[in-house]
Amino acid sequence: MIENADTGTGALLERVLERGNLQRALKRVRQNKGAAGVDGMTVEQLPAYLRVHWPRLREELLAGRYQPQPVRGVEIPKRQGGTRQLGIPTVLDRFLQQAVLQVLQPLFEPTFSPHSYGFRPKRSAHDAIRAAQRYVEEGRAVVVDVDLEKFFDRVNHDVLLGRLARKIEDRRLLRLLRRYLEAGMMASGVATQREEGTPQGGPLSPLLANVLLDEVDKTLEASGHAFARYADDLNVYVRSERAGERVLARLRKLFGKLRLRINEGKSAVAKVWERKFLGFTFSRPSEKSSRRLVLVAKASKEAFRQRVRRATRRVVGRSLAQAIQDLGPFLRGWSAYFRPGMHGHDLEDLDGWVRRRLRALWLKQKKRGKTIFRALRARKVPFRQCCAVAATAGHWWAGSLVANKALPKSLFHRLGLVTMAR
């Protein structure tokens, strides 16, 4: 523990390295678990490593000699399709980044805009959607929907560090932050240097994104605009398309100052029900009520179906129980996130569609009509229905509609299929 450490921003590195802060960081990294980085060290191995090597690491950090290792590049699927490049730091670097985050977040968090919702304590995507809903119900039916071109890959290091230096006087910490920004990426055994960007995957990246984009927030606030920003997703709500075009032109200049570019192909000024924000959209206006329903965007529903289709591909050697187990985490997460946009029997309909996909999988694995007939009869399905389903061999989706007698909801419940409708 550092005794009587300076509490000013000129001695932030000492605060990062205080025993209590490091213990909290270690606890958080162990809770988050996660994959190993390029060195192969696991979260479980980190405490033993620190017991042996921490005196040397602490000395290197204070002397400015510590050099982060390259991040491990991986691609993960996006919710709406496509992939996103992540950079997984080593467990040691995740621990050090978390320790830095715990000191910097209280410094920057109080100064951030109330219109910023991404990766902030006690704020969520649902809060951003509720704010957007209020703006729309106030009569702002036109949205300036801004998509930044490869934001996390295009962050300019000098610009970002200049914003950080406005609050951080400790040059050693700024130097460490620069080294984290410049740490290379290892992919397919090849390490590449990075001259711009902050890879998604480390604890610090979300805070750094908010630091950089806070200048845009403050400018929009000063102009009295109604907006919601979640990381690099920004929607500004106005009353006319002409006003929206003026706002978009101004945003081009603002982001240009930050060395960022708007993706013109994905950005637009449009009616709110024609665009999506964080996977949601809004209902069209109604003469009966000014209330606008939050809806799940069509693209989000299609991404749901594509994900379920992948998990229920009718391939040999994959059991019904395995498919159900694979689907569980996805169905829980999807329903928890999109529940505010589901109305009436929407979730029940999706549950039924998932069960039908699983019934088709079960039928396909029986392959032949005779095998299907015997399997259905063993489950006490009436003779005529067994014949009807067996006759559909090769047309598994059609047969799955009749197979609900053999594979009822109660069976899926026993197998642990997550039910989204509650």
What's the gist of this structure?
With 422 residues, the protein is of the alpha+beta class. The chain has helices spanning 12-16, 19-32, 46-63, 91-108, 125-137, 151-154, 157-165, 171-182, 205-222, 241-257, 298-311, 320-338, 346-366, 369-378, 383-390, 396-402, 409-414, and strands spanning 71-77, 83-88, 142-147, 185-187, 190-192, 226-230, 233-238, 268-271, 280-282, 294-296. A hairpin with a 2-residue loop joins strand 6 and strand 7 (233-238).
Topology:
Layout: H1 12-16, H2 19-32, H3 46-63, E1 71-77, E2 83-88, H4 91-108, H5 125-137, E3 142-147, H6 151-154, H7 157-165, H8 171-182, E4 185-187, E5 190-192, H9 205-222, E6 226-230, E7 233-238, H10 241-257, E8 268-271, E9 280-282, E10 294-296, H11 298-311, H12 320-338, H13 346-366, H14 369-378, H15 383-390, H16 396-402, H17 409-414
Parallel strand pairs: 1-4
Antiparallel strand pairs: 1-2, 3-7, 3-8, 4-5, 6-7, 9-10
What would you say this structure looks like, in words?
This protein has 422 residues and is of the alpha+beta class. It contains 17 helices and ten strands. The protein has helices spanning 12-16, 19-32, 46-63, 91-108, 125-137, 151-154, 157-165, 171-182, 205-222, 241-257, 298-311, 320-338, 346-366, 369-378, 383-390, 396-402, 409-414; strands at 71-77, 83-88, 142-147, 185-187, 190-192, 226-230, 233-238, 268-271, 280-282, 294-296. Helix 2 packs across helix 4 and helix 12 (320-338) packs antiparallel against helix 13 (346-366). It is globular, with a radius of gyration of 26 Å.
What features would you highlight for this structure?
422 residues, alpha+beta, four-stranded mixed beta sheet, four-stranded antiparallel beta sheet, 17 helices, 11% strand, globular
